[in-house]
Amino acid sequence: MSSLSAPRCPVLDPTGASVHAEAAALRAEGPAVLVELPGPVRAWAITRHSVIQALTNDPRVSRDSRRHWPGLADVPEGWSLAALTMQESFFNFYGEEHRRSRRRVAPSFSPRQVERMRPRVQATADRLVKALAALPPGATADVRHALALPLTITVICDLFGVPEHMRAGIGSGIDGALNSSLDAEEAVAAHTALYDRLGELLRYKREHPADDLTSDLLLPAEPGAEPMSESELLGTLFLMIGAGHETTVNLITSAVQGLLTHPEYLARIHEGAIGWQDVIEETLRIEGPVMHMPMRSALEDIDLGEGVVIRKGDAITIGFAAAGRDPELHPHCPERFDPTRAGKEHLAFGHGPHFCLGAHLARLEAEIALTTLFRELPDLALAYPGDVPARLTSFMINGPVGLEVVPHPA
């Protein structure tokens, strides 16, 4: 198998219109397949569960493109993936630098600390579901924008002390930066707007420090230590606020879609045959909120077998949402939503040193959103049964752009 100089390779659809079918085709072709990403940039796409698990825990693979990806020098100005690939945060750091930076925020997302957030998350969910319950019979609402998005953005912005007047701008800025279908000019404008808003947040917190994570990040990690650089502060805020709401929005929306499309599982929940965690883990398996996540780089040649060798310096993109649908892992109807299945293994939150810090919080928010929604609105139904909602325009983020529901069917 040839390397990044190969003359022909499939092009990943930047709109993400058919991410699962695309991933299935790549998985069938080999343990890694050379693809073209927006840019154009070539990278090895990994979509098999076992290979993702191996490479994300392999010290021969780095997320630090600044240090370990020679191809970075050749990407065009305004490259749409620059916001993620060039981000200075523990998301991209390697080795001890990664461990040092991650330790700054990890304690705030431990299971114990997350559980302490339950009352505040529940209060926000109660308020949002109450507004849905107040709609008249037959009225429709978009559950993504009426519940999933405001719940998750409120929780993460409360944690980071984002004042109310900045929240909408930062949220829309993150959405723009993750839109992989933008052209170069649009991508530059989206990234500039987002970092301007995050910079405004840092200036505000320097003037108005409080008991929140942004204020904590502005302080040295320990007495005598250097504070975070401005670029690392901006990258960490982008990562934590962006990943702290965008992925959970998709998890909640996809779970509601799965249950309303297959109402027989709601009956199984009421019977006590399955629990809400079964629904959440099955949703993570079949509709992982993150699909192709660039970029990683090989620090030396890596032989994957089947004639595939990733050469030193080659770029790699990981298809996390593809792992849960791998028929080698789930041979029985992996494309079917089935919370009763015994095994629900997935890699929706990643694997290895870069495993998602927000996994516990995402599960808590999804549990509270789902239990509150279906408890208060037992007759909730899809507004357009049989229709398939449009998908987000990104090959990186996986989820419906909206989900119209009827809280009180007429």
From TrEMBL:
Any one Gene Ontology MF annotation carried by this entry is: iron ion binding
Gene3D superfamilies, alphabetically?
Cytochrome P450
Whether Plastid counts among this entry's keywords is no
Record's signal peptide: none
Q: Which SUPFAM superfamilies match?
A: Cytochrome P450
What keywords were assigned to this record? Heme, Iron, Metal-binding, Monooxygenase, Oxidoreductase
Q: Which domain of life is it from?
A: Bacteria
UniProt lists the family membership as follows: Belongs to the cytochrome P450 family.
Which PANTHER family does the entry mention?
A: CYTOCHROME P450 YJIB-RELATED, P450, PUTATIVE (EUROFUNG)-RELATED
Q: Output this protein's name.
A: Cytochrome P450
